[in-house]
Amino acid sequence: MAFAVVKYLSAAYLCWIGAKALYTAIKTTAAKQIDTAPHSTATCKKRPLLSAYIEGVLTNALNPKVSMFYLAAFPQFITGADQSVTSSFLLVFLHSAINAVWFAAMVLLVSQLATLTRKGAFQRWLKGVTGVVFIWFGIKLASYRITP
């Protein structure tokens, strides 16, 4: 009985969120665009590029997953020869260079996508799709049956 109550309340909540998103998508016109700015320009302060870079380097350097990756994967590619220190540094340098290229490409891609997603038509489309999906999830949850 408790499961059924939680299930139907959750389904109703999902449908309510979906209906609200659909209403917003239909109500919003091209003249009245949805505000997608995360912060107002008055409260959002710019961070220096060097500060952001140092924070990123420290976050990555202090991440235990990165250390575990280097300890687990790299010894397989390093020989026990006299040039092992040189080959180790070369391997780490190549890995860092590949990561730099990858993340630079991601930054460029995401910045282009951010420009696209700020457009009113895209926001209306996204709200509409989200509303339909949430309503569908709510109906699916409400019709869920436990088989013994």
Fold topology:
Layout: H1 2-27, H2 49-61, H3 64-73, H4 84-117, H5 120-142
Helix pairs in contact: 1-5
Keywords:
mainly alpha; elongated
- Provide the structure class: mainly alpha
Termini separation comes to 15 Å
- General shape: elongated
Helical proportion?
over 70%
Beta-strand segment tally: 0
The share of residues in extended strands comes to under 5%
Number of helices: 5
Q: If you average the pLDDT, what whole number results?
A: 82
Largest sheet: none
Word description of this protein:
With 148 residues, the chain is mostly helical. It has a domain at 1-33 and 121-148. It is built from five helices and no strands. α1 (2-27) runs antiparallel to α5.
Question: Could you write a compact summary of the structure shown?
Answer:
This protein is mainly alpha-helical. The chain is built from five helices and no strands. The chain has a domain at 1-33 and 121-148.
